[in-house]
Specification:
Elements: H1 4-7, E1 16-17, E2 22-23, H2 32-35, H3 38-68, H4 72-99, H5 104-124, H6 128-156, H7 161-188, E3 190-191, E4 195-196, H8 202-223, H9 237-248, H10 251-281, H11 286-298, H12 300-314, H13 316-333, H14 340-350, H15 357-366, H16 374-389, H17 392-403, H18 405-425
Antiparallel strand pairs: 1-2, 3-4
Helix pairs in contact: 3-6, 3-7, 3-8, 3-10, 4-6, 4-16, 4-17, 5-6, 5-8, 6-7, 6-16, 7-11, 7-12, 7-15, 10-15, 10-16, 10-17, 10-18, 11-14, 12-13, 13-15, 13-18, 17-18
Length: 432
């Protein structure tokens, strides 16, 4: 049976309902663009390209570190700067999304243009601080995508919200999977002994990566101007702040924001120093590091839509709790399996849950959000991750410096344990 949060929507005379594609006042069916899945798949593809850029930066870190002579804390500072800028971006993103719903495509265009511009700055940066500016712009641009895209999907597909969120993240996982493979190969210039060339410098690679970002922005504005068509009209500033106040005083939504933030903290802490560990301690090539990073998201391409669909059918809590608990156990297993084939297998299994749980957490929050406030709700979810995520990479940098990667594993595992416990008690909408 449908979730009560998704079946209680009322139709206003004259408003087109995206669930049925019927104008409730005239009985006429809306266009295919209004109700079809094209928008879902198109935004998912754009999300994948955006995440290709994010994944590229992760694999480039060892090369950047070697060129600029950066320490662990400076590397953590890059991740923190990106997280802080992402958090700041959520504020205007949420406001613009809910107040100018019919201009969603333009917000997405700005998002991709900023990501491309950030990579241009990274590519020409002579020193760390200029590099950091580029990282900040990339972080702002990538976060600017989330509120309009996730918010629009939540509003457009209320009866399939878990699946829509999962499909959007699946696009991200395709980007996160292919990016390390491609970027690792281009940096190293080798795939075993089959393909060998001199490899690309990370600066040139950053400039090349900016090109698909610019092109994606232009494609979005050309193809998806109907994004936001389900909106009944503009929202006044007074109405917006009224909805925002209800968001900030809803314990269920705040709980989901905290849970999403903890998952993001695990990601920011664990993945960055896993890359450093593989490159510097295990002496893996850039190509081999890229393969392992891609494994973290590869399995999620399959598991994410399955988990999203399950959460629509049986409820959010069982899926979220199982994923968070599994993630906790798997992270601690890295203390025992920290090299070779066992570690490779463990990374692949962790990929079933590492990112896949996030769209379910987002969907659980959207179940409790007023209709018309989806953009601000999404912004709140990602802001929580940015606040906690801005602190944990620096803390992980100090831990890695003092205790090595095993210390980072324990740190990440403790965060995962807290998240798993909270997933059992935080308020969520029940299936009826």
């Amino acid at each position: 049976m449908p979730d009560t949060s998704e079946s209680s929507t009322t139709n206003t005379p004259g408003r087109k309902t995206p669930e049925t594609g019927i104008d409730s006042s005239t009985g006429e069916r809306t266009s295919a663009n209004q109700t079809g899945l094209g928008l879902m798949y198109g935004l998912s593809a754009g999300h994948g390209i955006k995440h290709f850029g994010q994944g590229a930066l992760l694999v480039m870190i060892p090369s950047i570190r070697a060129t600029l002579g950066l320490g662990d804390v400076a590397i953590g500072g890059m991740s923190s700067a990106q997280s802080i800028s992402s958090g700041i971006a959520n504020i205007p993103a949420g406001i613009l999304t809910d107040m100018f719903r019919k201009k969603i495509a333009w917000i997405l265009l700005v998002s991709m243009l900023m990501v491309g511009t950030g990579y241009v700055i990274i590519g020409v940066s002579p020193v760390y601080w200029i590099l950091l500016i580029g990282v900040v712009i990339v972080g702002f641009g990538t976060s600017l995508w989330h509120a309009p895209a996730f918010g629009t999907l939540a509003a457009r597909y209320p009866e399939r919200r878990g699946f829509a969120m999962a499909a959007h993240l699946t696009g991200a996982q395709v980007g996160n999977t292919t990016s390390p493979l491609v970027v690792g190969f281009l940096l190293a210039g080798t795939i075993g002994s089959w393909v060998v060339f001199s490899g690309l410098d990370w600066r040139w690679l950053a400039l090349i990566i900016s090109i698909p970002m610019f092109l994606t922005g232009l494609a979005v504005i050309a193809k998806f101007k109907t994004a936001g068509a389900e909106s009944s009209g503009a929202v006044t500033l007074t109405e917006y702040f009224g909805s925002a106040k209800r968001l900030l005083t809803n314990p269920g939504i705040l709980g989901m924001a905290l849970l999403g933030a903890l998952r993001g903290a695990i990601h920011n802490s664990f993945q960055v120093f896993l890359v450093i560990y593989m490159r510097e301690e295990l002496d893996y090539s850039d190509t081999f590091v890229g393969v392992h990073v891609s494994l973290i998201t590869m399995a999620g391409i399959v598991s994410t839509p399955i988990m999203g669909n399950m959460s629509d059918r049986i409820g959010r809590r069982p899926v979220i709790s199982f994923a968070m608990t599994s993630m906790t156990v798997l992270i601690f297993l890295f203390l025992q399996f920290d090299s070779g084939l066992p570690m490779t297998i463990l990374i692949g299994v962790l990929g079933l849950f590492f990112f896949s749980v996030m769209p379910i957490i987002n969907a659980a929050a959207m179940d409790m959000i007023d209709r018309g406030s989806e953009g601000s709700g999404t912004a709140l979810m990602f802001s929580g991750g940015a606040v906690i995520g801005s602190l944990t990479p620096i803390a992980a940098g100090f831990i890695n410096q003092a205790n090595g990667f095993h210390g980072v594993i324990i740190f990440s595992g403790i965060i995962a344990t807290i998240g798993a416990a909270l997933s059992l008690v935080l308020p969520m909408k029940r299936k009826v």
